[in-house]
């Protein structure tokens, strides 16, 4: 449970939301809890290549920055588990007196450490591509089986879409995710956020990891959405749950609302000083 002192007061959140016209949502860990489908897909791919399977919580710690990074971290984690070691979130007080990293535990968000584990096991980028392809094919087939929207999310999008009927001026919802477009679109369709004809879509515009001009934390995706929907930066807000969301918003010069109980780590998010913070 996130302590109240780290959260923006609800009254302030409501006041700011009333002033915004464009709400740009992340997908994994923000709109939807996708872990129930991501974890089996990851482990299917690991098992296919003879790599040790990893726990659901380990998969959770590997999520962020797109599917390729998920697979890189997961493969490195499986290699560690296969060697009788551990991987996942950082472990406090691990390491020696000089502050060196513990060789028996992999912090999956440490890109250099992940790369070193992969290199030591002979996993070059071509091999990662093979694992990614197996993962992607399986995930596409199963990506809506266990995925669920977070409580209140669909109602919030309905509130956005109903703004004109309340006489409040037009508000629109968009989505910017580093997730590939095929599973992202399938999830949006299942939960009624895309309904075929553009005028019926609750998500007015969306960009994904393989369709955006620039992946988060770069600002290019946000710039493209602002231009497409003709909204000024001060009228837009990015709603996400991880470091790429905070930094994309900062880099694009828009506000952000960050969910501290999504897939990101609060200890990494809070030092970035997102404009507003909520539980979920």
- The proportion of residues in beta strands is 5-15%
Q: Tell me the radius of gyration.
A: 19 Å
* Total DSSP helices: 11
Could you estimate the helical fraction of the residues in percent? 40-55%
How far do the termini sit from each other?
11 Å
Q: Which of globular, elongated, flat, extended, rod-shaped describes the shape? A: globular
Classify the secondary structure makeup into a structural class. Answer: alpha/beta
Number of strands: 10
Strand order of the largest sheet: 7-6-1-8-9-10
Low confidence ranges: 93-100
Order of helices and strands: HEEHHHEEHHEHEHEHEHEHE
How is the main sheet built? 6 strands, parallel
Q: Mean pLDDT, as a whole number? A: 93
Give a verbal description of the structure.
The protein is of the alpha/beta class. 42% of the residues lie in helices and 13% in strands. It contains 11 helices and 10 strands. The chain has helices spanning 10-19, 35-48, 56-62, 67-82, 111-120, 125-142, 153-161, 181-190, 220-229, 243-252, 266-269; strands at residues 22-25, 32-33, 86-88, 105-107, 148-149, 172-176, 203-207, 236-240, 255-259, 276-278. Strands 7-6-1-8-9-10 form a 6-stranded parallel sheet. α10 links the parallel β8 and β9. α4 packs across α5. It is globular. The N and C termini lie close together (11 Å).
